[in-house]
Amino acid sequence: MLDRQLDRDPQAARAVLARARDQLECGVSELRDLARGIHPTVLTERGLEAALAALAQRAALPVDMCAAVPDRLQPTIEAAAYFLVSEALTNVAKHARADAVSVDIAATDGTLEVTIADDGAGGADPANGSGLRGLVDRVAAVGGRLDVSSPSGEGTRLSARLPTSVLGTLHVQSANVA
Question: What is the span of the domain harbouring residue 94?
Fold first, then answer.
């Protein structure tokens, strides 16, 4: 249809192409949203450390991973931590112009601490896009807190504190953006 339209009416063909592009972008966005909600088998079967190790192996740049999670955590918390790291690694690869990234995870005193730091360009701001804002919201949804530090020229550091269990009503805290 587009080929025929190009020959007869190039302007109309451009309009058809623009609609197709919009529909494709919408479909890709919906597919990404769906994929974010799917738990990887390794997370379900082997836990957070194994799932994060698999993420690090597939990452687009070197990842220095240090994870110390002694027991299985509540599935909601494991999923929040996994998707936080997954999305952060994707953001680093796409936007940070970094050479390497480190991921540190430790469970202490009822809290799972997750830190993702890169050596990239910095200057990331949750107010200027949906990526970091989505991470802040994801952590807050389980009663956690995400702090973002990203001075220009000094890389970006995400520091999350997640409760190791979620019981009853969730208390949402706002992010502290430095």
Answer: 47-177
